[in-house]
Amino acid sequence: MVKRDEDFEINSFNHSRFSNNLTYISNGHKPPNMHKWGPGVRDIYALHYIERGKGVLETRHGRFSLKAGESFMIYPHMEIHYYPDLEDPWEYVWVDFNGEEAEKLLSLTMFSPDKPVVPICNVNLKSFFDIGVNINTKPFDKLRSDAKLRLLLSYYIEYYQKETLILQTDYVGVAKNYIHNNYWKNTMRVSDIVNAAKIERSYLFRLFKEETGMSISTYVTEYRIRRACELLKSAELSIKSVAYSVGYRDQLYFSKIFKKATSHTPSEYMTLHANRSVL
């Protein structure tokens, strides 16, 4: 049966679920005093970690009493009022940030506008709030501050993972992601993909077959051929280079696999698409 090029329009796994738009604004440390804020709204996110003492956060969703080791999140455009305990005023560190990715990252945690407080965990998170100065004058300063912010949020995702996500590991997605990042390695084996997913081999095989309709090895071959098609269309690489670029050391073997999949040899495929580009 002759297969068309369209047969190889593999739905790529999204390597990044996010928009890469996460921006550090400022951070700081508030010593124990009677500082309070609100009621009012802000247009940024603000994450607070309480080192010691107590305080209160009030939102339209309720009144939250907080103590050392707990964290609270301020969401954009949400009316808030927070203040220290009169007898044991809190001391906390905080970081302000914004960006389209912020909401998506926080959706992976226990934080939500109606539940802006998370409990004490067994790790002191204070040190991760040491992100940067309020004004980053150098490009590398800004990059480092944004990276440290991402690191901080990664720990909140780890220690305060949303309960519904704990039981929903996307093993097939992990396997696909590994394939898409490593297909060019001629040393890649199915066992490597299984190890990346960290589940039992036969279980992954079953899940993968159910979701994609093909075996892992077939998916790897089709993904490699898909990438080879894209490279051959550019006509900037030799067939040998294309073969090596998609994980095949042997050019003859690659040509055999390519023709079986597309009904064209690599050279025929290059000529065919070169003619189409001229028309």
From TrEMBL:
The protein's matches in InterPro entries, at most eight in alphabetical order, are given as: AraC-bd, Homeodomain-like_sf, HTH-like, HTH_AraC, HTH_AraC-typ_CS, Tscrpt_reg_AraC-type_HTH
Q: Which domain of life is it from?
A: Bacteria
Listed Pfam families: AraC_binding (PF02311), HTH_18 (PF12833)
Task: State the coiled-coil residue ranges.
Answer: none
User: Keyword annotations for this protein?
Assistant: DNA-binding, Transcription, Transcription regulation
Q: HTH araC/xylS-type domain location, by residue?
A: 173-272
Please give one Gene Ontology molecular function term for this protein. Answer: sequence-specific DNA binding
What the entry lists under CDD domains is as follows: cupin_MmsR-like_N
PANTHER family recorded: ARAC-FAMILY TRANSCRIPTIONAL REGULATOR (PTHR43280), MMSAB OPERON REGULATORY PROTEIN (PTHR43280:SF30)
What is the name listed in the Swiss-Prot or TrEMBL entry for this protein? AraC family transcriptional regulator
